[in-house]
Amino acid sequence: MAKKRVHELAKELGLDNKEVLERLQAAGIDVKSHSSSVHEDEAKAVLVKGKAPPPAPKKAAAGMTIVRKRQKEEPAAAPVVEPPVDEMPEAPAEEAIAAQPSEVSPVEEAPGQAEAPPPPAPAARRPGERPRAAATVVRMIDRDKLMERVPQRRQRSFEGPVGPKFGEVTELRVVTDPFGRGREMVDVESERHGRAKTGGGVAAARGKRAPSKREMMEMRERAMHPSRLKKKKTVKRAPKKPEVTQPRASKRVIKMKGETIVLSDLAHQIGVKATELVQKLMEMGQMVAQNAAIDLEIAQVIANAYDYTVESLVFAEGDVLEASPEEDRAEDLASRPPVVTVMGHVDHGKTSLLDAIRRSKVAEGEHGGITQHIGAYQVMVPGRGKITFLDTPGHAAFTSMRARGAQVTDLVVLVVAADAGVMPKTEEALKHAQAAEVPIIVAVNKIDKPDAQPDRVMQQLAKYGLQSEQWGGDTLFVKTSATKGTGIQELLDAILLQAEMQEIKANPKRPAMAVVIEAKLDRGRGPVASVLVQQGTLRRGDPVVVGEAHGKIRAMLDEQGRDVREAPPATPVELTGLDEVPNAGDQLHVVASADAAGAVAEHRRAQRRAQEVTSGPKMSLEDLLQRMQDSKTLDLRIVLKADVQGSVEAVRDTLQKLSTDEISVNILYAGVGGINESDVMLASASDGIVLGFNVRPDTNARSVAEREGVEIRVFQIIYEMVDDVRKAMEGKLKPEAREKIVGHAEVRELFKISKVGTIAGSRVTDGKALRSARIRVLRDGVQVYESKLSSLKRFKDDAREVESGQECGVGIEGFNDIKVGDVLEFFQVEEVARRLQPGTPGKRSNVEAHP
Predict the structure, then answer these.
(1) In the chain, what are the domains?
(2) Is the pTM value of this prediction over 0.85?
(3) Three-state DSSP class for 426?
């Protein structure tokens, strides 16, 4: 007896696996799943015995039938009492009334309802007609009762008016055409009643004739080409204008992140088109493109027209720096020492005069006896008060220092040597003082010399508008001698008198402001700045910002190296605590905190970087060609280091003025501090040299320079540095080629020699003919050919030179077209080294050749 699995038997008999399992288990056969094996005969006996008869085949002409149920609307009827229901499955109302195509369930009628007569027997089928499928009978249940039976969790609560009351559920059937298309809804109840009355067949139940052949063709065409069906005409409606929603007042703010804003970005933030803003600006007389940038003022005008406000997000230093009142109160003002700047020509005795005033020996500490830094000193005059002196350099390289000294001073002492008179730097110092609009006191120094002429100095200065009081003017002239000490007290009295006339006062209670006189990098203390307090009182521990540098003041020293805790107005001090070396002339401001100082310094750095990027104009074709030509120009690359910032600026400007059309000075880097390893590596990578002014290289820098072959030169006097750089530039210049005429010879006879060419029998008329010289053929005063000699002979012997008046045979390389009467010119080309001649300040130096 063969065995088969449960799912195989279910497939053969057309039953469900679950149903087969249930029947077999009910019959006592041990099966657990559809994969269990059973005896085929035994299982088939059980399954075939309980198998339901197959459903009747569907009629082909009827097509597919879909039964739907629809609720028939009828007036509300009296409540009907229904018998209790034993069991109700939890299913929605739609499932309760779903159509069952295969099984027919008995209909339960409500009590008290008349029993409907049984339907008449179906009419006899015509020959060839298939039996009709059984219709589905649905029990009619009142809606209220049905809703009560639905579980509570599936009921929905509806708000609003209640719809019309529905009655019993009516059964509907969807009838299609023979091709399965063209569905039609047919009421089963009415069809049943109509069939009962008429007793007709299928055609009578449908109540319509069979479709004709043409209708069949049309239905088939619609089924095969549905796209050819007519589409509904769309009704075009007028477009609605968009409604502009006005934002809240807090949203109507335009934020500017920079000093300018692009017009298109402004339009985007307002919510209008950029062309509208362009037109509005044209009405205002402004021709601006969409991508153009506009400033804050124009942006505010446009924003106000659209009820917007503009908020600038640009970092404002004035909001961070301590704002000072426009006018100080009279009770806060106090007298302060006058600030006096000593100016004049180089070596006219400015520092020696200050030495006599301070009774010190500062000039001996200066290299070469020449001041090369700005020195700030404070002198106490017994019974009169203090005077602050600023000593400026007189050398031509320190123009910027003199200009800075004139800007921070109250009055100027112009020192003029009685034996030298007015010199170029005297005129320059006078112009700086007059530009600063400060009073001038003239100190005629060196009157103890035998050739001193003070009256001549007064006459010379009268041409510049400085008229002596002795001659009816308003300028104080004091005759002094620094070496003898003559006139020192008179000079101090004149300074104090002038200060009293000016009524110099300041407010020590304001936030401190100072100006940087000098700055340097000290190996032990770091960045050191010499400042002169102008307003307020500077204290130790104050957070300050100086240009791009910032920090907290750690220590303050006076000119004698003594510790100072407070510096009132007009006091020069040397302070430490900055993060980098500031530039000379930068303003020092006291701020509220160290964070605020850092923010201001970082903002200034960002501004400088942005300016460096955008400062260069766009390059045109002419600029490109000029740059290509300039690339052929030689340049001397220099890494410059100095002890103080002022010296760096002065030396850099002086060296750059040495540039010529053929060679230029290229300062790769200029900084404050000693020469270190990085400076040497920079010069090595750029094929340059390292120059130091008042600084020395460290041990590592020297070893790296020897290894890399970099030249390091240090100087203590600026004259020597300028001369050395000039010589280095001369060494890079190409020597100038010059011709030297050696002699002339006249052609008397020609000799033609095979395999040699034409030999010119000539007679030396002047000079001499050299074998090593070049030769030029002149015919009727016009140059015909230029070359070198192939041979020079005297009586068939080779000769190195032929003296004047002697005859010789001359062979010219590559030229045989010699004629009698031609003149042969012998010359040599010599290379002459060129030298740079000092040019006028601000102009390029001249190049001159020297043999």
Answers:
(1) 3-49 (no CATH), 64-74+136-152+165-205 (no CATH), 253-314 (1.10.10), 334-505 (3.40.50.300), 513-613 (2.40.30.10), 633-732 (3.40.50.10050), 736-832 (2.40.30.10)
(2) no
(3) helix
